[in-house]
């Protein structure tokens, strides 16, 4: 595993463009298996998770051709397997999205517990409830390896004779990935499907637009009730992946805590409103240019936490769209350590996302972890370089931001986690004035825990 050596205390300047939205690219890649005709995707981020999804698609029989760094052509003329390769699907949470397209194309899907970030329990129940509503049956089989040590749980989904049938589906939670699986399955089901309590994040909307480009009729895009008219024939499609607003939020935080002047391009400011509102609460002001689709972070940020009415300590929490996204909680938490004042961070979705704060405390941050979901941050704290490791994509980026704001040098191990979600982040930031060195092996004197 590689590591970064980061020299903190350098100001950045210039313009940085966000890449395509990882969380849109992954379900679109899975949905491309619905059609046997060519699909062309543009603005595809070159990151670890996307490479893993494309590798799974290729293993299933999809022909994949890349034309340039961000363009990909997929042709799923024949699917040669209904079973996801365990070695690849265990690497990425989004591998579960192939279940829906395999059910439509082959009438069967065999998946194991998907991999991904270790940020807490991520249940699959909602996915299977949606599939069952469309007529699929579920069998669970526990496989034991020859060593009698490794046990894999296989989930075997089978479509009814004649294929999936449209239905009214109520999702027991507004899960983004379950909504995407339900959408893809409903697109290939016979008749009309109504999905209630659907997630409505921008990447879900992007998937809807992709399905529409293949000829699927979807009403209610952007709302919590989606009506899908299924079909059995799909056309060719060309789709541009939207800009990654999570990456944009990461760059906002980076600019603010390093005292940098940065312009961020390639993302629609309209979808950033709640993100900008919450950053403003901790003293980070961002200028928007809606016409040119630019965000500008000036170097002289207030960095002072705004108290609630009556002088109460503010609570910043994540919530489903259009609320503040959970994927930016780690970034905002680091920013709060560099803002004067006290705030409570309440991560409601995942019980392990905040466990990376012990690494920030080791760097000098004043943080009280109240429980798995809440942390009190007292700023401003002087951060110092340290030897740390990246536990997941977003915490990894948050720690990189902390290292760039810290005094002295830091070593960040496990950078493959960061590479899963951020394209060539070291090269892109170095071009703006950062000092990040990528190394291909672990330091022999590193004592941090992976």
Task: Describe it.
The protein has 450 residues and is α+β, with helices and mostly antiparallel strands. It folds into two domains: 3-18 and 243-439, UDP-n-acetylglucosamine1-carboxyvinyl-transferase, Chain (Alpha-beta prism); 22-240, UDP-n-acetylglucosamine1-carboxyvinyl-transferase, Chain (Alpha-beta prism). It is built from 14 helices and 23 strands. The strands form six sheets. Strands 21-22-1-23 form a four-stranded mixed beta sheet. A four-stranded mixed beta sheet has the order 2-14-16-15. A four-stranded mixed beta sheet has the order 4-5-3-13. Helix 5 runs parallel beside helix 6, helix 8 (245-257) packs parallel to helix 10 (329-337) and helix 8 (245-257) runs parallel beside helix 12 (393-405). The longest helix has 13 residues, at 245-257.
């Amino acid at each position: 595993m590689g590591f970064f050596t980061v020299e903190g205390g350098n100001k950045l300047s210039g313009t940085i463009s966000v890449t395509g939205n990882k969380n849109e690219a992954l379900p679109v890649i899975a949905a491309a298996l619905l059609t046997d005709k060519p699909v062309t995707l543009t603005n595809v981020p070159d990151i670890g998770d996307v490479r893993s999804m494309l590798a799974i698609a290729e293993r299933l029989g999809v022909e994949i051709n890349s034309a340039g760094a961000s363009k990909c052509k997929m042709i799923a003329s024949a699917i040669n397997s209904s079973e996801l390769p365990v070695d690849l699907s265990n690497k990425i949470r989004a591998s579960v999205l192939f279940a829906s397209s395999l059910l439509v194309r082959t009438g069967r899907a065999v998946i194991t517990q998907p991999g991904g970030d270790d940020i807490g329990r991520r249940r699959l129940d909602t996915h299977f409830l949606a599939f069952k509503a469309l007529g699929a049956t579920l069998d669970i089989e526990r496989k034991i390896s020859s060593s009698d040590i490794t046990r894999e749980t296989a989930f075997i989904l089978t479509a009814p004779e004649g294929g999936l049938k449209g239905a009214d589906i109520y999702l027991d939670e507004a899960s983004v990935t379950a909504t995407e699986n339900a959408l893809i399955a409903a697109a290939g089901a016979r008749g009309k499907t109504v999905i209630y309590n659907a997630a409505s994040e921008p990447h879900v909307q992007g998937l809807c637009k992709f399905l529409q480009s293949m000829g699927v009729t979807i009403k209610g895009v952007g709302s919590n009730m989606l009506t899908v008219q299924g079909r059995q024939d799909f056309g060719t499609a060309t789709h541009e992946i939207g800009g990654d607003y999570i990456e944009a939020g990461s760059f906002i935080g980076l600019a603010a805590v390093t005292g940098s002047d940065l312009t961020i391009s390639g993302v629609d400011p309209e979808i950033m409103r709640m993100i900008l509102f919450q950053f403003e609460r901790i003293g980070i002001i961002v200028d928007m240019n809606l016409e040119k689709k630019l965000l500008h972070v000036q170097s002289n940020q207030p960095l002072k936490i705004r108290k609630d009415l009556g002088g109460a300590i503010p609570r910043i929490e994540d919530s489903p769209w259009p609320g503040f996204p959970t994927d930016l909680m780690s970034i905002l938490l680091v920013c709060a350590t560099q803002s004067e004042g006290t705030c409570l961070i309440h991560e409601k979705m995942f019980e392990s996302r905040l466990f990376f704060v012990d690494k920030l405390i080791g760097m000098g941050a004043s943080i009280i972890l109240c429980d798995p979901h809440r942390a009190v941050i007292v700023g401003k704290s002087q951060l110092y370089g340290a030897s740390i490791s990246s536990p997941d994509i977003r915490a990894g980026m948050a720690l990189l931001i902390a290292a760039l704001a810290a005094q002295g040098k830091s070593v960040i191990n496990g950078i493959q986690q960061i590479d899963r979600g951020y394209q060539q982040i070291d090269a892109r930031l170095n071009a703006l004035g950062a000092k990040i060195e990528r190394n291909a092996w672990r330091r022999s004197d590193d004592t941090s825990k992976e």
